[in-house]
Amino acid sequence: MELWRALLGLLYLLGCSGSSQHSLQYQYVVVSEPSEGLPQFFMMGYLDGQLITYYDSQKKEKIPKVSWMKEVEKDDPDYWKDGSNILRATEQVLQEDLRNVQHRYKQYRGFHIWQTAYGCELRGNRSIRGYSQYGYDGRSFLIFNKDTLSWVAPDPQAQITKMNWDANLRWSQRNKLYLEEECIEWLKKYLSYRRKEMLPWTEPPVVTMTRRTEVEDGMETHICRLDGFYPREIDASWRRDGEVWLEETFHGSLVPNADGTYHYWLSIQIDPKERGRYRCHVEHDSLQEPLDMALKEPKSNLGILIGCVVAALVLASVFAGILVFFNKSLDGYKAATTSDEGSNHSDWGKNQAI
Length: 354
What we know:
Blueprint: H1 2-15, E1 20-31, E2 41-47, E3 50-56, E4 63-64, H2 72-75, H3 79-105, E5 113-123, E6 128-136, E7 139-145, E8 150-152, H4 159-167, H5 169-198, E9 206-213, E10 220-229, E11 235-240, E12 243-244, E13 249-251, E14 255-256, E15 262-270, E16 278-283, E17 291-294, H6 301-339, H7 341-353
Antiparallel strand pairs: 1-2, 1-5, 2-3, 3-4, 5-6, 6-7, 7-8, 9-10, 10-15, 11-12, 11-16, 13-15, 14-15, 16-17
Helix pairs in contact: 6-7
């Protein structure tokens, strides 16, 4: 069981890109030895990394995994029925693929897995990316190059399939059309369904700025952290004199929190003499207007020095007062014991106890 989970996780990582703003991804898995809890075939669809639809060979039915996916029925009442029929046919094809690949490797027994991943991404700069690939036992088997309409075969055993698929130019053109157009259309449609349900809930980002100075060259690294925001889409950039500044800029991954919100960070390295020229610029649906966060100025050492001097003077005065009081008390004590030792000494001791 752990093997197939690890392999599936590997395929997911191969199919995902952290630089995308929105993504629609599908994964198909066929195993040679199904077991309880592991169907022979299953499909998972993801929107921005969230599971939205599912199918397996036991239930034989494509189902929504989030409530807002049911909205698709309003536009297409037969969406789930047609999808189930298509996946039943796909299941048969991929099972045959697995048997053929096992035959190539002469692996007729044991646990083996055939994986397919494809999808599209709509990036922050409005560019698009589409991909399609096949894997066997966690290794890349065939990868589609939609620019050349050909298949890349990292595995020597895939050469026969590569030649057959490369020869089917019409099929490759169909794949390219889906990845660049149809997939993007579905991606936008699913996003619209999700926005309708999630629209009432927005959380503004909590922005914090931190700074550190590099010992080697004296340059400063400033980190702008954005925490607890929703929805996921956010536009954050470093700006110099009001213009987007990409030089010496680094970005973290957009990561979900346990409560459904997200966090993100971006850093920049600058000359401290130009600190006043830079801002962390943030735009988000929860904000009425963009935020421009100035870089933190280091605290002045002069103020700290003055504070220390004042504290030292006050402390010296206190000690001087204590010393004067102690000396006066000691003189009085000596005078009392000299003139009237008997009764006065006993009264002084009683007064100290009170």
